[in-house]
Design goal:
The complex is a heterodimer of chains A (116) and B (114).
Chain A: E1 3-5, E2 10-14, E3 19-21, E4 24-26, E5 33-38, E6 44-50, E7 56-58, E8 64-68, E9 73-78, E10 87-95, E11 103-106, E12 110-115
Parallel strand pairs in A: 2-12
Antiparallel strand pairs in A: 1-4, 3-9, 5-6, 5-10, 7-8, 8-9, 10-11, 10-12
Chain B: E1 4-6, E2 10-13, E3 19-25, E4 31-38, E5 42-51, E6 54-57, E7 65-70, E8 73-78, E9 87-94, E10 104-105, E11 109-113
The chains are: A mainly beta (116), B mainly beta (114).
Chain lengths: 116, 114
């Protein structure tokens, strides 16, 4: 079965510093990987995905993610953090089902706190 | 923009009540999903549906059922609510088109069972 792991429950970063939120995956076959963000009392918002191609994927709000096949990782990054980036971040992987049935398996989430 | 709406943001029910959570999407998506979100456990899939009247169990279906009579609407039913079903419930939808796998989420329903 496909799975993702987010090893950090919380990440603290000073505003203006680069941020990294970690995700590792375990899949059979080629991985399809996703990042989502959840602001307080809201649903999840899609940030970016890796399907194939360049290992560096750019997404919304200045975020990017680096796919590393040898380390089975898909870390989320941003060069300069903002206080408004404080939120809960989820990594996800697509499960392989037939016939257009798309299912994602999510990690447990990482709380990002950006402080002044 | 894809829009997924859920019938209630907050809901308080008593133990033993039958509870209906409704979800509607406006993008003609084939796939629809119900998750529950609990601190430290992330999102756990309860049920999903890939077509009208079709459903599949997710990881934690016990105590829940679903209904999909129309393509745009997916309902989650708690036949007899229990306190351990107090949680945030999230609905999502996605296209079955090739290359498009991301899911779009509603705002969530925070259910409290007393």
């Amino acid at each position: 079965a496909q799975s993702v792991a987010q090893p950090e429950d919380q990440v603290n970063v000073a505003e203006g510093n680069p941020l990294t939120v970690k995700c590792t995956y375990s899949v059979s076959g080629n991985p399809y990987l996703f990042w989502y963000v959840q602001y307080p009392n809201r649903g999840l918002q899609f940030l970016l995905k890796y399907i194939t191609g360049d290992n560096l994927v750019k997404g919304s709000y200045g975020f990017e993610a680096e796919f590393n096949k040898s380390q089975t990782s898909f870390h989320l990054k941003k060069p300069s953090a903002l206080v408004s980036d404080s939120a809960l971040y989820f990594c996800a992987v697509r499960d392989w089902l037939t016939g257009g049935r798309n299912k994602l398996t999510f990690g447990t989430g990482t709380q990002l706190k950006v402080e002044l | 923009d894809v829009k997924v709406t859920q019938s209630s943001r907050y809901l308080v029910k008593r133990t033993g009540e039958k509870v209906f959570l409704e979800c509607v999407q406006d993008m003609d998506h084939e796939n629809m999903f119900w998750y529950r979100q609990d601190p430290g456990l992330g999102l756990r899939l309860i049920y999903f549906s890939y077509d009208v009247k079709m459903k599949e169990k997710g990881d934690i279906p016990e105590g829940y059922s679903v209904s999909r009579e129309k393509k745009e609407r997916f309902s989650l039913i708690l036949e007899s609510a229990s306190t351990n079903q107090t949680s945030m419930y999230l609905c999502a939808s996605s296209s079955a088109a090739g290359g498009v796998y991301e899911q779009y989420f509603g705002p969530g329903t925070r259910l409290t069972v007393t």
